[in-house]
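Regression report. Comparing outputs from two consecutive submissions.

Submission 1:
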Amino acid sequence: MRKIIHIDMDAFYASVDQRDFPELRGKPLAVGGSPDGRGVVATASYEARKYGVKSAMSSRNALQLCPDLIFTYPRFEVYKEVSNHIRSIFRRYTDLIEPLSLDEAYLDVTDDKLGIGSAIEIAKEIKQAIQDELNLTASAGVSVNKFVAKIASDINKPNGLTFIGPSKIVTFLEQLPIHKFFGVGKVTAKKMNQMGIFTGKDLKRFSELEMVQHFGKSGRFFYRIVRGEDDRPVKPNRISKSIGVEDTFESDLHEYEDMVFEIKRIAEKLYKRLDKAEKFGKTVTVKIKFADFTQITRSKTTVFSLDSQALIESHALGLLDKVDMQDQRVRLLGVTISNFHDQDTIDEVGIQLSLF
């Protein structure tokens, strides 16, 4: 029987900003986006979430819900530094750590380094250490597999700790609303609702074959996890499949020269990230979002790795040049590198893509 902990920081970016800037504490805060309604929210503080503001929401919609919303520009270097400290706390207890992003990770503490033996006690100690050393709060889910532990960590946020033992898993999953299942997005949830599936118990009425027929490979996963079956190991090393940078502009770009300037700036920032991660790939992708929110991507794969800023810039500009703008204004530009030359090797830590 494994002992799995899922740690999820509470409103991570926003909480770090509120910690560092006392004038922001207790106020509705959005990291990312801008007061003029441009961009998207990366993280919202709990004060903002009370108004319905959430991540990936446009600034315009967020302001409609919360007119007093305060925006801050993301400080990714600071967040990464804090994340590294959090992971150093994890390593006191286990080396089996699977980071999902800067603010969450799975830990396998079946055989913990300190011989504590209790996953609940370890989760408590980790939460306390994060509070004492970083003045931040985290929520933890504890169970015998990754799927249930992740769902459990979300139940009593913020600063929660939820244990779902083996004897409670089946009942817990049967009562769980289907949209709460990790891996079930809005589209899938809507399709399931149309099939009469609103809870885990409803889901269990369908055979594995029926699930595969309706949802493909994911159907097999849904069939198993609603029965509490999840033997996926905690993988301490995750493959980083792509690294990218994108920016939403304060004013829409109309002149081609301005777009070229921004692509060059983005390419410079992207190269620094790639160089720091020691990962260079053969595929470059340019993302363009227009003022009407329509979006296109253009990609190109070379026979060699794009291991210099000049190469990244040149190929990204080449892709931009092939796009017929038709006098459209550009709201966002992004460049991503993938198909890494060491794609078959393991990277130590996954890279979280910038939203900006």
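Submission 2:
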Amino acid sequence: MRSPWALLTTRGKLFVVLGAVVVAAGVVLGYEDVTRIGLVLVALPVLALILMPRRTPRVRVHRDVEPSRLAPDERGQVVAHFTNVGKRPTPLYLAEEHLDFQLGDRPRFVLPRLAPGEDRRLRYAVRSRHRGAYPLGPVLLRQRDPFGLTFLTLQLSSTTEILVLPRIHPLGEGRIRGMSRGSEGEMPQMVALHGEDDVSIRTWREGDELRRVHWPATAHRGELMVRQEDRPARRRALLILDSRAAAYPGSGVRPAYEWAVSAIASVARHLVADGFVVHLLTDTTLRDGTTDHPVELDAALDALARVQPDQDARLDRLAAAAAPFTTGGVLVVAAVVAHDEEALRTLAAIRQPGSRAMAFVLDPEKFGTRTESRNGTARGDRDARGGRDSAADDGRRVAPTALLADSGWQTVVVGPHTEVPRAWAAIGSTTLAGARA
């Protein structure tokens, strides 16, 4: 509870001080009129404090965000509905909406008097350059008396969340084909030695498209026959995001981490459009148990909008969680920082023979950061240029992309100026055998 003195404005405090001085002077000098003037100066702030309502008004706040999910740099409109749900009219307030500084300046407006049940709408714009989940609210209400002697701040605790999605880049029209011969990935067409009728033609089933009807075989057998172009298979992709806070030093918006999130989000949309079933693996999804379940694109983008670097994140833990997926030949796409050789070795080992694994390897030094290894020495991919890495100056450390490429990963080293579509094209242009994009 704030003291009465804290509720006075500078003018109100000046009235009290001057009034007390005038009262003292009037008493000492024996002038009753001067004393009365001093008492009036003191009485005005006191009376304003007594008459000021200190209870938070019963006003309900509801916000509509258009659109509900924003892209970076996209302008959104917030419509705030203020409804008086109390039984008394509300006074006039100066209102201020609390916003994260990423969304812009805090809107300030006048909230007029509201009769019981009356509703008012106030509109303001928001825009953010960076992804994230940002709260809207609470609303701060400021009230002054007509003389400006008292100042009261109240709060309407209602809040709403606005979601800014990661920046998504188009990755072209090229399709990704799995290389697995297991239960996952895209299966090669099976062609028989004695003609396609033996294997690639089957009886028509309900739901088959008419364009797949094989008319010569239909006429020969007297029943509808269709081409079976692919063996039934599920194509799944596992997207891995390295969220180790130690790999992305700094605070606030970290360019390397934002690049990694944007790359994973772009790949997610590309693979979903290509018919893949996508699983998202981050420390957050690992903790809440959602990695095992396929994720829709909207849910994946929402999760990537909220994800942040984690001090407790470990790459070997993500690798252990990814291992059960790779046994079936799932396509693996990872965004990882060249930070810890041991962790990279663990990640490299999850790829199974015959399966496809791709990695964006972020170079810390290119992003203007230096990470520390476990023995405290500075680490970085000093010689990474266009995906061709050399060992460190002492010749004993193996280049990060070499660790992955030796295990059959397709890799590309990226920096802050590397475009995501270009990096994706570089990965796709490599071969599985020791690729170094």
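Expected: both submissions complete independently.
Actual: both completed, but the second showed a warning that disappeared on reload.
Relevant detail on submission 2: Residues 180-199, 371-398, 431-437 have pLDDT under 50 and may be disordered.
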